[in-house]
Design a protein that fits this description.
By secondary structure, the protein is of the alpha+beta class. The chain has helices at residues 25-37, 111-128, 142-145, 153-160, 165-205; strands at 2-5, 17-22, 41-44, 53-65, 71-87, 96-102. Strands 1, 2, 3, 4, 5 and 6 form a six-stranded antiparallel sheet that branches. The chain is elongated.
């Protein structure tokens, strides 16, 4: 299928709210077309000077419109796609477009696996002394966690490309284990360093 495209150096996940500030003329035109024709558009991820994957989004609301014509809008991300072809402008339009293949993703995972993830997140937040909000094990999925666990831009992009929920949760689990291990080591050696400095100060006082 061919859809309008709005390339960004950002990763959005299905189900995520996507706030955008619209100021370029081509995207003002795009938002106007979305309002008038109820079309969706795609946000391909611009990474390493190329675009291969992205997410289809739907306009939900134009929150503010300014005298300059700029807008604050809210969209919702729907489905991951693979970009097959890119055109700098769609016929008769200022904005880009392209041919995309919408990908089928599943969201099924065992409660046991989800509970393990929740336990690791709780541990990570405790180490970092960050307030922890309890997750509903039955309703959360990998994409709802993606921006909250310290993934890099590249890791978020990797996660976006994984179609099966179990595989996505395994990816997150490996990241959490590695991060917790590093932070535990830093905390351990930080404590040892403080103990050493305290002992040194005591010796100097003798």
């Amino acid at each position: 299928m061919k859809i309008p495209l709005f390339p960004l150096q950002s990763v959005f996940f299905p189900g995520e709210t996507v706030p955008l500030h619209i100021f370029e003329e081509r995207y003002k035109q795009l938002i106007t077309d979305c309002r008038e024709e109820a079309i969706t558009f795609g946000i391909p991820v611009f990474i390493n000077n190329k675009m291969d994957y992205g997410v289809e989004v739907q306009l939900v609301e134009v929150v503010s419109t300014y005298d300059s014509g700029e807008m604050d809008v809210v969209c919702v991300a729907r489905q991951v796609f693979k970009l097959l072809a890119f055109d700098k402008s769609m016929p008769g339009k200022l904005y880009a477009g392209g041919i995309v293949k919408l990908l089928d993703y599943d969201y099924e995972a065992s409660l046991e696996k989800k509970q393990t993830i929740i336990k690791d997140i709780h541990q990570l937040y405790k180490i970092m002394m960050v307030p922890y909000k309890e997750l509903n094990v039955k309703t959360f999925n990998s994409f709802t966690l993606a921006h909250k666990i310290g993934l890099s831009f590249e890791q978020e992009y990797q996660l976006l490309q994984i179609p099966k929920e179990n595989d996505r949760l395994n990816f997150i689990s490996l990241h959490l284990t590695a991060t917790i291990t590093v932070l535990d080591h830093q905390r351990f050696f930080g404590t040892k360093a403080k103990q050493f400095l305290f002992a040194k100060e005591k010796l100097l006082m003798i």
